[in-house]
Amino acid sequence: MIEQDDFDINTRLHTIVRGEDEAAMVESVGLALVKLPDVLNRLKPDIMIVHGDRFDALALATSAALMNIRILHIEGGEVSGTIDDSIRHAITKLAHYHVCCTRSAEQHLISMCEDHDRILLAGCPSYDKLLSAKNKDYMSIIRMWLGDDVKSKDYIVALQHPVTTDIKHSIKMFELTLDALISFNKRTLVLFPNIDAGSKEMVRVMRKKGIEHHPNFRAVKHVPFDQFIQLVAHAGCMIGNSSCGVREVGAFGTPVINLGTRQIGRETGENVLHVRDADTQDKILQALHLQFGKQYPCSKIYGDGNAVPRILKFLKSIDLQEPLQKKFCFPPVKDNISQDIDHILETLSALAVDLGGTNLRVAIVSMKGEIVKKYTQFNPKTYEERINLILQMCVEAAAEAVKLNCRILGVGISTGGRVNPREGIVLHSTKLIQEWNSVDLRTPLSDTLHLPVWVDNDGNCAALAERKFGQGKGLENFVTLITGTGIGGGIIHQHELIHGSSFCAAELGHIVVSLDGPDCSCGSHGCIEAYASGMALQREAKKLHDEDQLLVEGMSVPKDEAVGALHLIQAAKLGNAKAQSILRTAGTALGLGVVNILHTMNPSLVILSGVLASHYIHTVKDVIRQQALSSVQDVDVVVSDLVEPALLGAASMVLDYTTRRIY
Predict the structure, then answer these.
(1) Is the pLDDT assigned to residue 343 strictly greater than 70?
(2) According to the model, what pLDDT value does residue 21 have?
(3) What is the pLDDT of residues 601-627, one digit of tens each?
(4) Strand ranges for 557-603 from DSSP E
(5) Which whole number is the average pLDDT over 375-387?
(6) Which domains are assigned to the chain?
(7) What 3-state class would DSSP assign to 111?
(8) Which distant-in-sequence residues (6+ apart) come within 8 Å of 280 by Cβ?
(9) What confidence tens digit (pLDDT) does each residue in 278-315 have?
């Protein structure tokens, strides 16, 4: 190819020692180091251009640096895998000037102490040719290499090299790749591996599986670059571990499956799907089904087609009289994120904890709000027993998550009482949960599980659940009211949860609706909770039962069963007028509270959640029609359709935060 481009070749050096093992690579570098000094003394170059990260380039850079010849290194600063990383960075330290392809590579060079003034961000020179490549007769190239019956986008290009730092594993990975390609049953162009250590073993694998004679495969040692461009541009997929897959192929938007660790740190476009490791062909086969035939946007991460003019200008600007001594600086490294097949196949999940007055529940909750598995225990009465049980249940759930192929991103805790979510501390609890004041929940859980932990009030968690999974999804302003043992709630304003200056916002159960109403558990009286909570209904049910006015025909309460709110509701349904009056009063109190909320917050939606919501909804709407200002009477009030708002809300704290930057 060099001869075809009519270069004036001054010297030819034969330095590659055959053998395709580690020793042969070392001997090749040594042989080049012996031969190069004589050539460089004769040529006396002003600048030596060294490209990439191959071991033969290291010999050239070493010789030039020791002989005080200026070195211009192209494609430094990138991160991949195998020994290439070490060689590339070694050449960087020997080089005086640097031409890099991406913004991240530039930042890596700077963080490696290279002088910013001697770094050019030019893009990849090969992109100059890729982005200008136009061959209308690409079908003739496809037919020449793959056969007359092959169509565009209906074949695969495979190019896989040995990983010199883990030859045994890379050969196993190659074997699994060929098995997957055979099973996938598409015409495939397989290029032989390079001459790195391990390549002989990979060729043996190809021959053992009969690839050279298989009707679906075409095995070749070399394809001219111009033709290779057309083959990958019109392929249904490219698979392997060549840098070409994660770099050049992005220019065409061709789907790529990058295998193993050889290119582990490379920047990639969205067309690249990584399969870091595989024990069977199934994961690779899954990746082929995901990628084959897709068309991604063309990526210009590695260049815009104008690298060569920039490099020429940079070369001309070099002052050959300036000292060769390098300068140094220490800026930060920029991170890189890309797709990974493991992330796709695993279920991103959260551990959700719900601390109720009676039960302690832990659940594995998926990104879609599905409860994968739930664990329930009675909530202990003492702090020591309770915290130990929480830790035990969370550790068991985290271990089970691995078996269920769930990746736990963090822990979310929903608890009654007033909570400082910034510190993860329960400040004051409800009377239902004893020994639960000034409790740091975040620290013990985070220390035990090594995961981030979020804590919030159960009412706030219900609102978060509605925002992510329920009827509040996409709404800017809404309010959630929980009707259960107590009355709680949460307020979403401009898409964000309101906590208040002392974390006491949305204590909606303690809105006073009557100056001379019944006593409330908070110490006041006339609160919504004193009328409409499960505890309030239980209190009224007991009064009726004690007066023999609760049970009606068709009802009975076993002697060993405590009278509760559900008995009152059942009596009302069976026509008990006193029970109906109590429920109507409770619904009216809740309705007045909602009217106050409408007048104060003016939300676009009110969601009633909890076991009592469906029994109150009609009365609440009637009160709004009678008592609310006309400007808010059109605000919709609905019953939540979420079964587990506390657990889902606890999970949403984790899922919203930890995945915000990734998905």
Answers:
(1) no
(2) 75
(3) 999 999 999 889 999 999 999 999 999
(4) none
(5) 91
(6) 2-123 (3.40.50.2000), 130-291 (3.40.50.2000), 346-470 (3.30.420.40), 473-641 (3.30.420.40)
(7) helix
(8) 176
(9) 777 788 999 999 999 998 888 878 888 889 999 999 99
Q: State the average pLDDT for the chain.
A: 89
Which residue is listed with tokens 């009328």? 531
Check if the beta carbon of residue 659 is closer than 8 Å to that of residue 348.
yes
Instruction: Quickly state the pLDDT bin for 345 (edges 50, 70, 90).
Output: low
Question: Has 430 been labeled as part of a binding site?
Answer: yes
DSSP letter string, 412-433: EEEESSEEETTTTEEEE--TTS
Judged by phi (left if over 0) then psi (alpha if -120 to 50, else beta), residue 518 lies in beta
The H or E element that residue 543 is part of is: helix 534-546
- Pure H helices in 137-166: 138-146
The tokens for 412 are: 């979310």
Annotated ligand binding at 177? The verdict is no
Asked if residue 527 belongs to a known ligand binding site, the reply is yes
- Statement: the pTM of the whole predicted model exceeds 0.70: no
Gap between the Cα atoms of 492 and 467, Å rounded:
8
pLDDT tens digits, 151-167: 999 999 999 998 887 88
Question: Counting beta carbons within 10 angstroms of the beta carbon of residue 374, is it exposed (0 to 12), middle (13 to 18) or buried (19 or more)?
Answer: middle
Distance CA 66, CA 203 (A): 38
Which range, of 135-144, 180-189, 573-582, averages the lowest pLDDT?
A: 135-144
CA dist 337 and 329 (Å) reads 25
Residue 458 is among the residues annotated as catalytic for this protein = yes
Is 553 a known ligand-binding residue?
no
Buried b (16+ CB within 10 A) or exposed e, 163-181: bbbbbeebbebbbbbbbbb
Helices (H), 5-136: 22-43, 55-66, 82-94, 103-111, 125-130
* pLDDT at residue 328 in the model: 67
Catalytic residue of the set 5, 458, 516, 546: 458
